[in-house]
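Forgive a beginner's question, but would it be possible to get any protein sequence you like and the tokens describing how it folds?
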Amino acid sequence: MPSAIEQIVDAYVRLKNRRGLDELMMHRQRLAVDLKSRSGYDFSLPIGKIDEEIAIIEEGLSRLKAQSPDSRGIRPI
């Protein structure tokens, strides 16, 4: 069963919602930066999970780019 982030990314790709994916990516990147700057607790597990989610979002962005008309040599009118 796909994870929640995989389902969200799949929906954004199906809807061709690049902005949604970009916002999702920026949010996860901010979380990663914030957690990596903290000390006093081992944040390696949540950081690892966020890094996995970033990879899923990057893959979704790649799929969306591959679907765009420009990537197939088709120019919009």
Observations:
- Helices lie at 4-14, 18-37, 44-67.
- The two ends are 40 Å apart (CA to CA).
- The first helix runs from residue 4 to 14.
